[in-house]
Specification:
With 78 residues, this protein is an all-beta fold. It has one domain: SH3 type barrels. It has no helices and six strands.
Length: 78
């Protein structure tokens, strides 16, 4: 799949409790900082996220995070 966002793209995100499957979110990863990921599933306070561009992305596998690690939902890209 081609990337939806390219390096150095600007996005606007909002804190939201209404995050759904296929939404793109900004995530605070403790190792690499803020990243953009797509929501694949929810389970209580856990969320499974995955990147769009598996050939480029270092996090190609679906990864389980705490919902509290999500900074916000992307609502607009420039």
């Amino acid at each position: 799949m081609l990337p939806t966002f390219k390096p150095n793209s600007y996005v606007i995100c909002l804190k939201s409790k209404r995050i759904r499957v296929n939404d793109v979110v900004v995530l605070e990863d403790k190792k690499i900082g803020k990243v953009l990921k797509r929501v694949k599933s929810f389970n209580d306070d856990k969320v499974t996220l995955k990147g769009d561009n598996n050939s480029y992305n270092s996090m190609v596998y679906e990864t389980l995070y705490n919902a509290s690690d999500i900074v916000g939902k992307v609502i607009f890209k420039l």
